[in-house]
Predict the structure.
Amino acid sequence: MIKNINIKNYKSILDTSFHLSPFTLLIGANGTGKSNFFQFLKAVSEVLNDRPFNLPKHINYNSLEQEYIFTDEKQRILKLINQQDDQHSETLHFNFQIDNESDVMNFDEIKKNIRYKQHPLISILRNVSIFSLNPENAGRQEDLVSNPVVLEEGSGVVQVLDALKTGDREDLFDKIEYTLSQFISEIEKLSFLPNKNVKQLQVREKFISTPVPVSQLSDGVKLALILITIVFQERPPSLICIEEIDRGLHPRLFGKIVELCFNMANRDNMPQIIATTHNPYLIDQFKDNEDAIVISEKIEGKTFFTSLNERLANIKPGEEPLGELWYSGYVGGIPH
């Protein structure tokens, strides 16, 4: 798990450090840098997978070096350093430093190093997905393919579930079905509309005599199904980033979706989850987990990330819900 991140010079993020939890909620006004942070994680993933990438510097500080430091729960360290003055002259070249060793390697050297392939932080960062989920994708027909995964807009759920059900990982299908039934108590069973090469999902609901196509369910149920499938698919991302996790959810389901994410992310060998929201009622669900909320703010053109716990230490709130404290401006992270 990534526990701490220090980012120096990426887009609007000039120099900031902050803590991540197994499930982290990122809040703040529009345009403060939340999407830049997700783009940063994806760009670092591209670097570590030796694919073309773009890690632009802050427009006002193009001459400064870039340095990105990741630390896990066992204090293992991965540091990426770019000291080029002009990033437009050629492809950027990052040097790497692992743990507390003084050796600094370039990318060609580190690719040949067996410790590079085995380092836990590199394994996590090579497998990052940024999801902007469209609930409708859970209810659509899908052609069957080999080795399916859930894509970043939420398609592929039907393909993944069919592969699990008909392959040798029916245990994962059963886990997804059970978790969904715990989330929506009326749902008893997942199945497929009969078809050979094209599949569509349906559910069996309590007190309903015939199966109901998933396309007819609410966006909240579809969103939950996509999220559960992402986490429990055979090859899930190591780091799951979700834009607007509350999209389509009824407020009464906020507590369930937060509990679901905490339960999944806190299990051994399960993905780490980072999600964004602008909804104060979702923030309310993090009572007693305030350390899992990170506030994004932009000050004089520079993005900073601060833990909610740090802000709460500097004020004396009453009994107001966390969402009200944020919405009212007591802890920052609101539009100016």
